[in-house]
Amino acid sequence: MSTHLLVLAGGVGGAKLALGLTRLFPPPVLTIVVNTGDDEVFHGLYVCPDLDTVMYTLAGVVNEETGWGVHGDTWRVMEALDRLGGETWFRLGDRDLATHLRRTELLHAGLTLTEATRYLCERFGVRHTVVPMSDDPVRTVVETDMGTMSFQEYFVRHRYVPRVQRLRFEGAEKAQPSPAFIDALAQADALIVCPSNPLLSITPILAIPGVRARLAAVPGVRVAVSPIIGGQAVKGPAAKLLEEVTGEPASCVGVARLYGDLCTHVVIDQQDEERRAAVEALGYRVTVAQTLMTSEEDKVALARLVGRLCGALP
Q1: How far is CA 299 from CA 121, 195, 224, 304, in A?
Q2: Residues in CB range of 159: below 8 A, 6 or more apart
């Protein structure tokens, strides 16, 4: 039986599976490593969209309609800022702003991002270990037919309409994995890659020097859950990006190609049963299941399946 599961996550899909896993496994069993390539400074505040989405989801306060932000949040600060002529294209709810204010205070006081994340998770009642991929700044930069822009400009301001030519992860070449990530790499019996956007949420983690090789060396099962169902992303630009960056139609096959030597197993959705043989031809063991998570029962069921594949559940 596996004793430690290393989980890579980012975005709404990653947070959903992470929630399911926390329903099945006690805190010592899981380390959830989250992408920070999306991080940005807005209004002088350090904002961590993927970390916050995972934290809010595990805390039970996430806005279920959007998958991000805080349930029942209000927008009075943004409304007032708009009246004052400030930029409000990246909208932050009032309660969400409190998180960014406190994080920024902690960072200015000398805490690392890992330490600030641990503090915030404790305040939100999250008992499982949620850590940034690195305490060093790594920024996803998007080169498009409309010019080079930050990820948030591409994703939020331009609603991921521009055609992407290339993704760069500035700072990755100098970054180190966070201390808890290093510990998890040493302890991991299995690897779980959540159904997060492969290019935007997982690739930044893999861009840190040495990380991909160390993940590929995790001794047990290394399983990825495809976020593409029937050629479509459940949420966000994953399918569009796969087509633009890799040059092939978006599918679970394309996701499997991206993870190459990283994983041993892939979970694909029932709608993609006909693509099973193509994924198997890439050298994976393939499991077909319902991967769309619209309820907590769905999240737990998928987590149970993944846990069984990893040998962590009977």
Answers
A1: 21, 11, 15, 9
A2: none
Enter the tokens of residue 237. 């630009």
What global pTM score does this model have?
0.96
Q: Which two tokens stand for residue 114?
A: 């890992």
Pairing of strands 40-42, 30-34: unpaired
pLDDT in the model for residue 1: 46
Give the CA diameter of the chain.
59
In the predicted model, residues of the chain with pLDDT beneath 50 are 1-2
Taking alpha carbons only, the member of 146, 219, 209, 147 closest to residue 182 is 209
pLDDT attached to residue 236: 87
Q: With left for phi above 0 and alpha for psi between -120 and 50, is residue 290 left, alpha or beta?
A: beta
Question: Which residues partner with 88 through β-bridges?
Answer: none
CA-nearest of 189, 54, 26 to 120 is 54
**Helix (H) or strand (E) run with residue 42 in it:** strand 40-42
**Which residue is associated with the tokens 């902690």?**
106
E strands present in 161-284: 164-170, 190-193, 222-225, 228-229, 232-233, 265-269
Spatial distance between the Cα atoms of 31 and 256, rounded to a whole number of angstroms: 23
Alpha helix segments (H runs only) across the chain: 11-24, 49-59, 76-83, 94-108, 113-123, 151-152, 179-187, 203-206, 211-216, 238-246, 252-259, 276-280, 296-309
